[in-house]
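User: quick one, fold this
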Amino acid sequence: MAVQVVLVHGIRTSATMWRAQVAHLEGRGVSAHAIDLPGHGTRMSETFTLEGAFSAIDAAVRSAAAAGPVLLVGHSMGGLLATEYVGAEDPPPVAGLVAVSSTSIPRGLGLRAYRTLMGGFNALPGRGVVFTKAMLHATLPDETRRDFGAGGYAFGAQDAALRSLSVLDLMAALRRIRVPVWFVNGQWDQLRLHERRFAAAVPGAELIVVPRTTHLVTAMRPDVFNAVLDLAIAVIESRERREDAR
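Assistant:
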């Protein structure tokens, strides 16, 4: 059975952030399922809750698992949620995890400072979209620049989502994971803070740091990130062949 890839976006953005990855995977004949979490993208009118977010991830994973082993990929908030989900006490049908820009425990002073910063941007005219667009223009290539905002920006869900992340018990979840894991960070990513703790907590996990990239590594250097997806798919395929041969 062919590997299925489920992609979970980060905060404020939507499934459109994965367009370069979906195009790459579909070009390889790999099924890609990019979802929108509550309060984001096509679900902008909904209220974000952790329960709703995990329900969305679980529905996508279980639907994809009917067609083959699932590689779950999450960016930023999506990576934190995916990590918690894969590390549940009752393991879901996931064959591998790629957690991107999400190796920082969202608690304490750092989380409060980030919520304050984002609240300040939201208080600006147009909720600071002009600064967001300027940052994307300065850092992302033409082919991916529009993807982050194509599904709209989930300003209304932002603080509720950030606040809810503080209840995640990521270290406990990491210690329960028994599938291949790749942690992918940009060299200049602000959420690299606990990357070595995360990698050490999962047996055999790989930590990949992409040079000259920021938090938006998937869009800043899509070819490099797509190569990581190819690697993860190859590892899962190899493991599946070994299992079938037994």
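User: anything notable?
Assistant: The CA atoms of residues 87 and 174 lie 6 Å apart.
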